[in-house]
Each structure stands twice: as C-alpha cells, then as structure tokens.
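task queued by scheduler; priority normal; single chain, no ligands, no partner chains; default sampling; output format set to structure tokens
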Amino acid sequence: MTNTSTRRSGRLLLVWGLLVVAANLRASLTGVGPLLDRVQSELGLTPAVAGLLNTLPLLAFAALSPLVPALTARWGAERLLGGALAVLTLGIAVRWIPTAAGLFGGTVLIGAGVAVGNVLLPGLIRRDFPTRVGLLTSAYATVMGGVAAVASGVAVPIAEAAPGGWHTALGCWVLFALVALLVWLPQLRAPRPTGPARNGQRLPWSSGLAWAVTGFMGLQSLGFYVAVTWLPQVFQDNGSDPATAGWLLFLFQVVAVLTSLAAPGAMRRARDQRGLAAACSAVLLAGWLGLFAQPHWALLWTVLLGLGGGACLVLALAFIGLRAQDAASAGALSAMTQSVGYLLAAVGPVVFGLLHSPGPDGWRTPLLLMSLATAAQLAVSLAAGRGTVAAAILDATSARRPDRTETSPS
C-alpha cells in the first residue's frame, strides 16, 4: 500500500513538473513583441536588428534540436531538462541587464534552454504516460499557450508600472523559471543511462511518415509565428487602431488555448487523427483565406485562426508520441520535427514581411502565401495522422549497421 502511494505521488509530482516546465517554454518569448518598439527606441536598434529578438530563439531551436537525443542518451532526460531550465533561468537574468549585449546574449541562452525542453517533453510523456499521450500533450500545450498569452498581455502594463520599465517586464519571468527549476529537482535523482542506450537514437531522416509529421509541425509553427508577428500590423493597415489590433492578437491566443482543451476528447473518439487534423487545418485555411478576401472582418478570422491553430498545435505535439513506438523513437522524432519545423517557422515571418508592399492591398500576396502553406498542411495531415515511425528508424540504422546474425544471400 505504501509503495503504491509513493509511486502515485511520484507520478503526480512528475506531471506537475512537466506542466511547470511547459509554462516556461513560451512566456519569455511572447512578451518581447509588445515591447519591441520601446526596446528599439531605447537601445537605438534598426528594425532588422530588433527583429532578431524574435528570430534568434527559433534559429536556436532549429540548430540544437538534432543534438538533444545524443545528449539525452549521455546524461538522461531528467538531468538534461534540469540543465536546460538552469540555462533558461540564466538567460532571462542576463536579459534583464540594460544593454544590447545582455538583451541578445540572454535571448540566445533562452532559445537554447527552450529548444531542449521542446524536444524532451513529448518523449517524457511517451515514456512515462504511454496511455495518456493525448491528454497530457493537451494539458502541457494549454498551460504553455495560456501563460504565453498572459505574458504578451501583461508586458506593456508591467513596463509602464514597474521600476526598470521593459527590462523588468522581460526579466521578471526569471522568478517563474526558478520555480520550475525547484519543482524539477526531485526528478534529477533518476539514474543515468548506461550500456548501449548511451549510443543514442538516430533521427529518422529516411522515413516518409517522419517527414509528414515534420511537415505538419513546421507548417503549423510557421502559421503561428507569422500570426503573432504580423497580425496586429495587418489589422491596423485595414482600419483597426493599435489597441484593438493588440486585443485581437490576445483573442487569437486565448481561443487557441481554449481549443487545445477540447482536442483530447476529439482524439479519443477517432480511430486515428487524419480526419481531425484535416478538419482543423481546413479551419485555419478558412481563416487565412478570409483575411485575404475580406480583411475588414478581422474578428471572425481571428477566431477561426485561433480555433484551428490551437488544435493543430496539440495534434503536432501529440503526433510525436503517437507515431513513435517507444520513448527513444519519440525523442528522435521530436528532434527531427522541431529542428526542421522551427527552421521553417523562423523563415516564415521574414518572407511574409518581405512580400508586403505599400498600398491598400499590400498584404494580399503574403496572405495568399499563408493560404497556400495551410493548404499544404491540410494535405500532409492525411499522411501524418496514422502509422508508426519506429520501423523506418530501424531500417535506416540497419543500412549502416547490419545485424551480425544476418546471413549473406547465396
């Protein structure tokens, strides 16, 4: 009885730890956008240099994600995630320093810490809660998105009311990161990996299903980061005042969070996720096409983009665990999807902005591009919604390392 109670409390502590970690994976990033004009003005940054504050973390995600499986095999997921939280905490503290060097140096450290957390959480859920992948993925996506929405909403009020202005608004999240680090400390007692597991898991580059999951992750990430970067400007150029445009962006994130709560129930009722992923992608497509055709109906298109985007995020994260046979395969798939996916997400806002032209129809070309990208997401969702990647991983590795018991053909 005591052992059962201890195991139950240990699993509950692990769930709380995962959720508190998830709460820190976006808040330090989404609070930057509302303060960007203040940062640029005070530090004398050009618009291109200031834009790096949004791009650098995504590039860090893309660069570091492929390294996480090897680091996990060497140190263990729990210790590696603890180290990532320490780096994240340090990055937020460094960004509090009122200099350009502190701002950009801290942003790089934040990107590195979040990159590791992004990859590890799906694998940990797949390893420790294999029958609750959809539910826990939805829970951590909801917490992550909810705190991110709050961070973007309170950034300006904190900057206006607190000593230190925008420095405090960006640096105050160090307290939240410290809480996550303390909550995660009990997990560091997990044993380090030994034996063959230390060799790590190869990324499934040769798997068509893995590429389908990667495409779905990348395209929905592209849509999200284009939305949080450019939607306020699109709304303003079509008649909304700045305050209304900001509230519409907040509404987009809140609707996405609420939708993510409903995703697990829909996933449980379906035999696989193809229909659900296609339907949610179609809702997203309707939102982008609506902005293209009737941009003045901003409220309606904001709600549609939030409805589709929240569900697609949960599905993209859940695919990592659902398409993998075990935790190691989930870690490898997570590294691949998030590396390529966030590289695509980093390029998306830049291309969207470059395609903008002066005049009343200046956003039509970039909005058409987003509609085409979402149509591609809808198509790839039909492949990403079922199957297992593990066999492809084994085939890819056996090509390089044949089994010793295999006999040569006669």
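post-processing summary
- The chain has two domains: 12-200, 204-402.
- The two ends are 59 Å apart (CA to CA).
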